[in-house]
Structure formats: C-alpha cells, structure tokens
## 1
Amino acid sequence: MRIAIIGGGYVGLVSAACFAEFGVEVEVVEADADKLTALQAGRSPIYEPGLDRLLDDNIRAGRLRFTADLPAAVQGVEAVFIAVGTPTRRGDGHADLTFVYAAAAQVARALTAPAVIVTKSTVPVGSGRRIAEIVRANAPALDFDVASNPEFLREGSAINDFMRPDRVVIGAESERARDVLRRLYRPLYLIETPILFTALETAELIKYAANSFLAMKVTFINEMADLCERLGADVHDVARGIGIDGRIGRKFLHPGPGFGGSCFPKDTLALARIAQDAGAPSRLVEAVIGVNEARKAGMASRVIAACGGSVRGRCIALLGLTFKPETDDMRDSPAIPIAARLAEEGALLRVFDPAGMAAARPLLPEPLIYCTDALDAAQDADALVVVTEWNEFRAIGPDRLAAAMRGRVLVDLRNIYDPQAMRDAGFTYHGIGRGVPAERPARD
C-alpha cells in the first residue's frame, strides 16, 4: 500500500514514520528546504523520543521517503493525508486553514487516479466539505473521496500513542474510503484497537471536543489547587480521591502553572469560536480559556511573593522552559510570561531546559543566562523555580541544590519535590495546592 503525506511537521512526520513501521510505503512532501534536507539525511527537525530511530529504520528499509515534488509523490497512491499547520488566525481566534486549502488544491491538480484525500490536520467542522468543493473546482473529472482522521498524539509519547492508541476516529462516508482506511490501520485491528467510523462533521468535532474536555480537567484541578492552599488541603490527595472514580479518571489531574503547547490553547479557542458561530456558545470552554490565561500570567506573582515581594537584583533560576517534558515545543509555554514578568521586575534569570534552549531563545527576554544543566542554573541563585517537570530535575537531591544556591527559596510549580524533604534541607518550599493545615481551636 502506498500513501502520501503533505507536511513534514510534528503530526505529519510522526504519522509517516509510524505508517511506514506498519509496512506502508510513505512519501512525505515537505516544502521547507532546510527541513527537507534534514529529513532526507534521516535527521528529525523536532525532538520526540524514539522518532530518530523510527525514521532511520524505515528510510533504510525503503518504506519512507521525503520530497518537495508533490505531483510525483501522489502518483499511484491510495490515500493522501493533509497534515499541514492550522494556526490560530489573527484577530478572531478561528483556525487558519490557508495551508490546508492550498494543499487540497495542489493535490487535486496533481492526482491522476482515484484516491482518498484525508485531513490529518485539526480542522473546524465543515472543512471536509469545503475541501471536496476545492478538489472538484480544481479537478472536475477526478474520482476522489474525502475523509477525516484526526490525530490524538501527545508530545513526548506520540509514537506509543500512534502505535497503541485508545481509539482511531475516521470520518468517511463512502465504502471505498472506509476500505482504504481499514486496510491502512489493519495492524491496529489486530490488537483490537477501537476504530470508530463516523460522518465527516462528527470526526472533525470529536478532535476539538476531546482536547477541550482534557483542558477543562487541567483547569479544574488547578482551581482546586488554589482552593487547597486556602483551606489547608492537599491537591494530590484530592486528585487521587476523585481520579479513582471511573467516571472521572486519573489522567490530566496534575496541578501546575496552566496548559500550553500546540493543541489545547489553539483548539479550545477554535471550538469556542465554532460554537459561537453556530449559535450554541460553549460557556465552559470560554471560561477555561480565560482561567488558563490568567493562571499563566499570575505565576510570576507567586515567585515574587515567595521572594518577599520583590525580585529586583535577585538571581532567579528557571528549570524547564518547554510547555511539557520530552519535547522542545515552546508554544504557549508558561515559561514565557513567567520569564518576561520576572525580567521586567528586575530579576537576573539563569535558565536551563534539556531540549528547548534553541526554541526558547527568540521567545525569552534579554539579557538572561542560558546554562549547561540544572545545577549550573542553580549556581548562586537566590530562588529556584521549577517550570517544567523533566525527570532529570526530580533526581537532583535537596543537598545538591542547597550547595549550588545562594538563597533557599524554592517555587515548585510542578510539585516534583517532596515538600518535607526540601524543608528539612533548609528550603522555604512553595508548591501548588499543597496547603498546610491551619491550627483550629478545639470545640467545647
């Protein structure tokens, strides 16, 4: 089986490598010359655990190729996946489909035989119908089908998410499209992965609904963390207590500085706009967006308060810059507003991230000091702030941190350290949602 994937970004590249691992012949079309050169040499332009090996194995096996020649890439394929970017459109919050529609027009003009055109990009409801119109306008005689196959890949664990997914969602309304996608995903049938076939619009909405629901869970536990701090409760126990309930589930109940990344901020905003335009506004999603933005903006205030109300002239170490561990993605990372505010307040910043330093440089204020590792960042710091929960930060003992630092203020925005162990080492520890029970007068 042969397929083409338009776009060698995060979704396109991971999907291509995994489909090739299934035994499918995959041609990836990438327009960016520098990225294409790296891919043809077997180098991934993104950081994703396990991806380099998967690329190398399948390039060597001849199942995975990269090109800039779209017309040649789509000849003889059974399916063409569109996996280009859909950034938030400036001014109104809608997804910008410029690249998707341009790719659809190019594919239509290049195809000379029947094929299924599949949107892998996250697109608003109705996009599949519009793609069909564009294809018909550019190639009136072409025999084609349009399908939707949204991705549910988490950065940092994308390969496992693709190879062993919770489910596969396919919006397809012709038997030919369903047959092509069934055969493509046959290896997942063999491990009894649930595969849900729906209408186009339903598949498109499922992606937005799933991400927005998860974003609501994150936002809810963050608000519960704030309440725990006021009441002397422990948010981790609260999360366990509600997460054990099968109706709620344990995942995405980890308090922190607010969600970021390429999906949740963009998709919640897009769903809010879709709902508003449809006359069925989603007040919950709108609230999630507002609460999350306020939370990220307010994290620096926590650091300033922990430092006694001022950070002017103080050396602050930031551990972690990416929006989550095991990625180099800086999009909407909480580190950006935190660093900007602290620098504005006169702090000297020392920063380190295991994978995101290059991506962070254009986004963070100057001057600041980029360090070689976590202990280098902590050197002579008056306060240390954990922004991203990389495992290597967890492994640093309190004695080693204390030996490197000048001060003893620790603001743990990811709750990766044991509060009592840090206090025993002399730190003034500030976590998220880890309230200290107040003394209450005994009742008569």
## 2
Amino acid sequence: MTRKFKDIIRRIGTRKLAVVGDSMVDRFLWGRVDRISPEAPVPVVRLERETVKLGGAANVAANIRALGAEVVLCGLLGEDEAGQQMLGLLKERGIGAQGMIAGPDRPTTIKTRIIAHNQQVVRADREVSDPISPRLLKQLLGALADSGPFDGFILSDYGKGVLTAKALRELVAVGEEAGIPMVVDPKNGDFRQYRGVTSLTPNQKEAELACALSITDPDSLRDAGRRLLERTEAQAVLITRGEHGMALFQQDGREFHLPTVATTVYDVTGAGDTVIAVYTAALSAGASFADAANLANHAAGLAVRELGTAAITAAQLEAALAVDKGPR
C-alpha cells in the first residue's frame, strides 16, 4: 500500500458525512434444513439463532462510521419496535440519529432473510413505500441543516419513498451550496432526477435499465458510462459490475477499469452500500475519483466475503491494500 492511500484513510477519520435515504432493519434467521414440508414442496428450516443489522442507508452510515469518520443518518422510521431496534443499533455504533424522523403512518422497513446452511432460502419484506409527506420532508431537511456542516453527502435511494423528486431537488441544492462531494446510489428509473450530484454508483443492471441498452462488451459499457454522464451532468459515474469489477467514467474523458479483488464470494448483500460509503468518504478526504474507486473496490472485495451486510473498518481496508500490488 502506498503512502497516498494510507493518508487518504487517515484523513477519512477526520471527516463528517451525512447519509440521507431509505434506512431499514436487516433481520437474519439462521437454521438448518433436514426435511421437506408435507404441506407443500418447500424446505422446513429449523431455526437456531437470529441476528439483526442495519440495512439500506443505515448500513451505508455504518460503513462510514467503521472507517472512523463521523456520520449523521437522515431518513424515516416507524413508531414501532423495529424503529426502537434501529435507534439502538445506531447508538451502539456511534451513528448520529438526529436526522431520523418517526412517521406515525408507516412502519420501519424490515427485510427478513432465512438462511440455512449458509444459503438464503427466502426473504420477506415489510415496508411502506409511499412518498415522504411535505411535513416530514421539512423536518428531515431541518434536522440535516442543524447537524452540519458536512464534508460529504450520500443519497442512498432504495425506492422506499424518502428520495422523491422534490426531496432530491432540495438535497442537491444543499450539496451544491456547501460545495462538497454528493454521491448517489441510484434506484431504477430516470437518472435525470439526480442531475447536479457529483457522482453516481449504479450497478450494471441499473445502468442498463437507465440507458435502455445491454452491456455486453467494452464498447457498450463505455456507451452506458457516457450516456449517464450526459444525462446527469455528474463529474464521474462508477458502474459496479460484480465479478467483472468496476468501471469509472469521468467528464474529462478519462476512464478506469478495476478488476474485482474478491477471492471468495459468500454474499453480495450490502456490497453496494460499502462501495458508496468508502468512495464518498475518500472523495470527502480529497482523493481523486480513481483513487476513491480503488479503495471502494478493495472494500467491496472484503464485504462479499461475509454473509449478510458488513461494515468494513479502516484497519481491514489497510490490511487488504497491504497485500495488493498497488493501485491499478
């Protein structure tokens, strides 16, 4: 690992970021399968234990905090047991929750995954994806303003109702006025709604849907990257490609292709959260887009080695970089 990357990781620990978006609770039920149900052709899982983690935008915040940076999470939760569970997990990790607004008419989003023999059997979601009300949006924006200033913004869009078109306009204006990096993890749809952000981190499927094309070779990948840059007017677009690594396209015409560094893949759950967390934190610490993408690529390689969502620490990232031959 070069001194440059060590310095970036060290500076991340001095930064303060805000994460705005769709937070959720990830619930994992672990067990074993030894028979098929006589009632239907489905496995019977004998449950042995349960774990609960932060998910969605909350997992992004957890990854930022694990890197040593200060972070404030802004979003919605319900006035329910899961909401209290989320607040407890945020407090436990040292994540600022002053931007979490309780909505009486919507439950806390919960994703429940049943895992047997280290494989996901089924997932059940409890959620309400209605657009955030004007009243709650005003509260959220007020809490965000009171919690600043920040060195970077992340917009984590899971399509659960927080990042509406109006909310995006308001938030992008805040980021532009502050003059700090603002990065969005987009949801399927018209990416023009994210116009004004510094960068985006879509996965390949999201990029394909947004551009209405199939990415099958270097030319179609480059075409998608250029279309997204034009459509969003972002300074850079980082397309994550699973086992094919990542591709970074910049407005100045430069592009970088990073092969995956993952040697073992157990679970890709939350890998995108890790990518945007490390990428944005590095940008807030003064890293170039290419260096930030390189750090994010190494962090993603660590995240997919674990079952369920994972928050990669600064020490883990430094160790991964130490065994690598260096930046590509």
